[in-house]
């Protein structure tokens, strides 16, 4: 491989660049959310459960695009902290449904201003238009990934 090819790979790799930013952003959110005893994944999980009111653990995994083990591990932490309640699904007794407890709703309200602070700073710093362009681009990348997975 030529030197310029190696440099191009190191600079342009979509996966490496997105992982680097994702890791850094995750660390920032986790650091700021530390006072709430939530990690960003758990916070986002609470938001999704709040949105859907009650959904199965597998549906939560689909919505969040996370593996079952990741969902289960995080749901168990949320159960331990009394943020969510899990019960058998009325439609399918083999499935379990998760819903927020009143403590979970309070925790969501406690953490949301912190999330809004970080989110607002990012949007202001790169500009609202650029931020929305970034979101559209990320959705396009996700479509490309989904297309590859369907092949």
Outline of this structure?
One of its GO terms (molecular function) is DNA binding. Keywords: DNA-binding. With 151 residues, the protein is mainly α.
Secondary-structure topology with pairs:
Blueprint: H1 3-12, H2 14-33, H3 40-52, E1 54-56, H4 57-64, H5 68-80, E2 84-88, E3 96-100, H6 102-126, H7 128-150
Antiparallel strand pairs: 1-3, 2-3
Helix pairs in contact: 2-6, 3-6, 4-5, 6-7
Describe the structure.
The chain is mainly α and 151 residues long. The protein has a single domain (3-150), classed as Arc Repressor Mutant, subunit A (Orthogonal Bundle), CATH 1.10.10.10. The chain has helices spanning 3-12, 14-33, 40-52, 57-64, 68-80, 102-126, 128-150; strands at residues 54-56, 84-88, 96-100. A three-stranded antiparallel β-sheet has the order 1-3-2. β2 (84-88) and β3 (96-100) form a beta hairpin. The longest helix is centred in the C-terminal third of the chain and has 25 residues, at 102-126.
As for the number of domains, it is: 1
Main beta sheet, described?
3 strands, antiparallel
Could you state the CATH homologous superfamily? Winged helix-like DNA-binding domain superfamily/Winged helix DNA-binding domain
DSSP strand (E) fraction? 5-15%
Secondary structure class reads mainly alpha
Order of helices and strands: HHHEHHEEHH
Give, in spatial order, the strands making up the sheet with the most strands.
Answer: 1-3-2
How much helix is in the residues? over 70%
From the 3D structure, determine the CATH topology: Arc Repressor Mutant, subunit A
How much is the radius of gyration in Å?
18 Å
- Beta-strand segment tally: 3
Distance between the termini: 29 Å
> Mean pLDDT score, rounded?
92
Domain HTH marR-type: 11-143
Organism: Virgibacillus alimentarius
Keywords: DNA-binding
Protein name: DNA-binding MarR family transcriptional regulator
């Amino acid at each position: 491989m030529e030197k310029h090819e190696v440099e191009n790979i190191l600079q342009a790799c979509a996966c490496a660049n997105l992982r680097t930013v994702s890791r850094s952003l995750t660390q920032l959110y986790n650091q700021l959310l530390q006072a709430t005893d939530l990690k960003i994944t758990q916070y986002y999980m609470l938001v999704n459960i709040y949105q859907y009111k009650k959904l199965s653990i597998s549906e939560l995994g689909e919505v969040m695009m996370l593996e079952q083990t990741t969902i289960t591990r995080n749901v168990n932490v949320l159960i331990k902290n009394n943020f969510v309640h899990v019960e058998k699904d009325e439609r399918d007794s083999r499935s379990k449904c998760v819903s927020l407890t009143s403590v979970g709703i309070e925790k969501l309200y406690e953490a949301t201003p912190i999330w809004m602070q970080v989110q607002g700073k990012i949007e202001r710093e790169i500009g609202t238009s650029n931020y929305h362009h970034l979101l559209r681009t990320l959705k396009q990348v996700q479509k490309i990934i989904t297309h590859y997975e369907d092949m």
